[in-house]
């Protein structure tokens, strides 16, 4: 009988740092029945994780990891573990490098398959078949046999000789019932504003009347970073807190309309379709664009126009301005607060609550790593904090009314008297696409005869299934028609925004935009580099008049594809 083979000598101990540590994941159901979780590493996310989760401060090391070439110089191997409900469940891990010429198909895939028992598996970079098109670390994909189940993952990078990492420090759990936590939440309230509209919704809800809370914003409102995205997002959690506060259940309704990577420039156009769908009349609308509106070409005009658009609805809903924050501590609340002051609106700043905690190392109850899921989005705990900040507002409104014995009057008739804080150009913006037509427009779709079905899609309300944005579009497909490489429209209006599809695919075409025969701008699908809904301002003028808009496929791109998702127009 042969005895056991002698074990191999232990591998040399290498320094390492985490880029994910006990991160909660949730496998979205795929067509094959498995679950998948995407964890994006591009656009600075990997570097940010190295800083926040791994405490890496070496600027040269961080710079090198921005590219695949540098990543390979720094990283020796990847340690990954996933803990699922069933420890015997099979898990497939893929770290995909993006290609320079072929974004999704040209790069190396670092793969491993293992059990979901929490044990670490190592992927050695020396074993990989590296591709010549490798460009930047792109995304991590985790596939699990069972979809729609929570799991936890940890990923750490072991370093090559010559590189070091700090010791891994332990973090204390955040006690959300503690006095210091409540003090942190209190700091989020900028002002309660006029309490009439919120209190009216609370009172109606307590009487058993139907009341709807609606949320519009970017990816944080969509629920990015929350697992699962439908019930752990700040929107649903704050909805639950409101529902608990008023003591009713079935008469409180929930509308979530967040779209990742999009500013209020798009939010104002899609508001009617995404929020007012099915004849919904919201009683409270939370507006969250403070970390998305760097892309607002009007620098606040679109944001204020959206706020005014909501305030002017026939049922006079309350509008709450919510200012979230990125991991660089930044947002645009300084630009947007004057809008809240102008209309005496309730305003809540998550930044004001959490950022001081990140740097008070002696007294803090929360670290940046605990709050953030990645450099842009909150973790489950972060979403809980956001919900608690909104719940604090509701409690403050109730307290203010109870102390006064009355509540503010609705001064809506004079609400819009005087100048806006920033601008109101788009107060009455409307959507134009194949479904919603405009009588003062004449369209020649030219070669844009197809309908694109590969669209940015989001989880609306409590649905885990994704709803495509702007499905009634015009698509040019060079494989179908090259004879007409244009889209042309005569339209009578004073302002026009084109909604354009971004893409990272190799077959995406650029388009040149002309107004009244003059070139205005290029619609470039690679500006963002991912499947994305992008608003582009075409013109904004003081008076309404007829214009001729022509969108022409750029020279050399006639064989490719281009999609006009719709337009926002103001008459």
Overview features:
globular, alpha+beta, 13 helices
Write the layout of secondary structure elements.
Elements: E1 16-26, E2 28-29, E3 35-40, H1 45-52, H2 59-64, H3 68-74, E4 75-83, E5 90-99, E6 109-115, E7 121-124, E8 134-144, E9 150-159, H4 179-186, E10 189-191, H5 196-206, E11 211-217, H6 219-222, H7 234-246, E12 252-258, H8 264-274, E13 284-288, H9 301-311, E14 318-323, H10 333-342, E15 347-349, H11 350-359, H12 368-371, H13 380-404, E16 430-432, E17 441-444, E18 457-459, E19 466-468, E20 474-477, E21 486-502, E22 511-515, E23 518-523, E24 532-553, E25 561-570
Parallel strand pairs: 11-12, 11-13, 13-14, 14-15
Antiparallel strand pairs: 1-9, 2-3, 3-8, 4-7, 4-9, 5-6, 5-8, 10-15, 16-25, 17-21, 18-19, 20-25, 21-24, 21-25, 22-23, 22-24
Helix pairs in contact: 5-7, 7-13, 8-9
Written account of the structure:
The chain has helices at 45-52, 59-64, 68-74, 179-186, 196-206, 219-222, 234-246, 264-274, 301-311, 333-342, 350-359, 368-371, 380-404, and strands spanning 16-26, 28-29, 35-40, 75-83, 90-99, 109-115, 121-124, 134-144, 150-159, 189-191, 211-217, 252-258, 284-288, 318-323, 347-349, 430-432, 441-444, 457-459, 466-468, 474-477, 486-502, 511-515, 518-523, 532-553, 561-570. It is an alpha+beta fold and 571 residues long. Strands 16, 17, 20, 21, 22, 23, 24 and 25 form an eight-stranded antiparallel beta sheet that branches. Helix 7 (234-246) runs parallel beside helix 13 (380-404) and helix 8 (264-274) runs parallel beside helix 9 (301-311). The longest helix has 25 residues, at 380-404. It is globular.
């Amino acid at each position: 009988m042969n005895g056991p083979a002698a074990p191999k000598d232990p591998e040399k101990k290498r320094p390492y740092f985490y880029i994910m540590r006990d991160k909660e994941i949730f496998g979205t159901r795929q067509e094959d029945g498995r679950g998948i979780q995407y964890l994006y590493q591009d656009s600075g996310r990997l570097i940010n994780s190295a800083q926040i989760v791994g405490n890496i401060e070496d600027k040269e090391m961080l710079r090198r990891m921005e590219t695949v070439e540098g990543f390979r110089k720094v990283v020796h191997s990847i340690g990954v573990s996933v803990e699922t409900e069933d420890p015997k469940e099979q898990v497939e891990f893929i770290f995909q490098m993006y290609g320079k010429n072929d974004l999704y198909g040209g790069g190396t895939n670092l793969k491993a398959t293992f059990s979901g028992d929490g044990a670490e598996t190592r992927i050695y970079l020396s074993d990989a078949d590296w591709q010549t098109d490798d460009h930047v670390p792109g995304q991590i994909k985790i596939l699990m046999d069972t979809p729609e189940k929570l799991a936890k993952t940890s990923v750490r990078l072991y370093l090559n000789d010559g590189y070091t990492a700090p010791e891994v420090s332990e973090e204390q759990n955040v006690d959300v019932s503690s006095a210091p936590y409540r003090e942190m939440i209190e700091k989020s309230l900028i002002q309660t504003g006029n309490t009439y509209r919120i209190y009216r919704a609370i009172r109606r809800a307590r009487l058993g009347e139907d009341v709807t809370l609606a949320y519009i914003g970017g990816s944080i409102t969509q629920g990015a970073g929350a697992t699962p995205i439908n019930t752990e997002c700040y929107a649903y959690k704050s909805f639950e807190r409101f529902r608990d506060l008023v003591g009713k259940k079935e008469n409180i309704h929930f509308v979530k309309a967040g779209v990742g990577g999009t500013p209020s420039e798009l939010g104002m156009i899609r508001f009617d379709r995404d929020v007012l769908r099915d004849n919904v009349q919201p009683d409270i609308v939370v507006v969250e664009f403070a970390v998305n509106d760097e892309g607002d070409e009007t620098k606040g005009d679109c944001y204020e126009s959206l706020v005014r658009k909501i305030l002017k609805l026939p049922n006079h809903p309350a509008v709450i301005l919510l200012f979230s924050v990125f991991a660089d501590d930044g947002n645009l609340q300084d630009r947007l607060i004057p809008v809240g002051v102008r209309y005496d609106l309730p305003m809540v700043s998550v930044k004001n609550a959490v950022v001081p905690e990140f740097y008070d190392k002696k007294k803090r109850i929360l670290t940046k790593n605990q709050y953030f899921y990645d450099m842009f989005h909150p973790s489950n705990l972060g979403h809980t904090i956001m919900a608690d900040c909104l719940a604090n507002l509701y409690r403050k409104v109730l307290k203010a009314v109870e102390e006064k014995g009355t509540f503010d009057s609705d001064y809506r008739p004079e609400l819009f008297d005087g100048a806006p804080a920033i601008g109101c150009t788009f107060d009455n913006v409307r959507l134009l696409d194949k479904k919603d037509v405009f009588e003062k427009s004449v369209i020649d779709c030219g070669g844009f005869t197809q309908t694109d079905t590969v669209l940015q899609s989001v989880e609306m309300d409590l649905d885990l299934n994704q709803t495509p944005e702007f499905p009634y579009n015009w698509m040019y497909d060079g494989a179908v028609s090259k004879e007409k490489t244009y889209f042309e429209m005569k339209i009578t209006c004073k302002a026009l925004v084109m909604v354009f599809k971004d893409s990272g695919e190799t077959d995406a075409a650029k388009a040149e935009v002309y107004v009244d025969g003059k070139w205005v701008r290029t619609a470039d699908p690679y500006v963002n580099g991912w499947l994305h809904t992008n608003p582009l301002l075409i013109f904004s003028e003081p008076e309404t008049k007829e214009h001729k808009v022509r969108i022409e496929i750029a020279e050399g791109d006639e064989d490719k594809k281009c999609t006009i998702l719709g337009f926002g127009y103001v008459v």
